[in-house]
Amino acid sequence: MGMADPFPEEASMCVDLYLERQEAGAQENQLNCLFCGRGHDVLWQTTLNLGTGTRCTVGVCESCRTKLKPKKAPAQPDGFVHVDDFIDNHFQPAYARFVLDHFRRSAVCHMDFQPFMEKHLLFCTYQDKRYRVTGASRLGDIWLSADFKREVGYEHRVNVADCTEWSGQP
To answer: Which range of residues forms the domain containing residue 62?
Structure first.
């Protein structure tokens, strides 16, 4: 699964805006916000395929991003959100995405990275109660424990979309 585009429904508008700016004489190597046209504070960027074999790098500035309605991770008809879709969604909390991404790594990576990750704990609120996140399944659910000292195992396997208030602190 590749990196999710935070503005998937605006992709065709991004291409149109890029081509319009090029026709208006915008510098090809200048990275401007696609929505307001300013060249400062561009914080998100991606490469678009224009369909003609031409690719372009586009960006969105902080002020325009905050004006856009945050997108939720794509949900299946039953409301389930796969943890990988949550990780790829740039509107979700970066720290939660970082730790969940570590949980999704192979066992070899877990062993190699454990010295660096042992201080990176993840907690969330699920059904009005705080839990420690102890893992993430390839099936898409995450593992929760009410025991904040527990490092492996779980009491609940839940939909990541049902969790809120992500933090490194209980």
So the answer is: 8-67
- The token pair that represents 63 in the structure block: 């002020």
Q: Is residue 103 part of a domain?
A: yes
118 Cβ neighbours under 8 A, 6+ residues apart: none
Please indicate, yes or no, whether residues 89 and 152 belong to a single structural domain of this protein. yes
The secondary element (H helix, E strand) that includes residue 167 is: strand 163-167
What are 46-101's pLDDT values in tens digits?
Answer: 555 555 555 555 666 666 665 554 455 555 657 788 999 999 888 888 899 999 99
Shared domain check, 99 and 49: no
Distance in angstroms (rounded) separating the CA atoms of residues 129 and 146 = 8
Q: Which pTM value belongs to this model?
A: 0.58
Nearest residue to 64 (alpha-carbon basis) of 78, 80, 83, 43: 43
Task: Tell the burial category of 150 from Cβ atoms under 10 Å away from its Cβ (0-12, 13-18, 19+).
Answer: middle
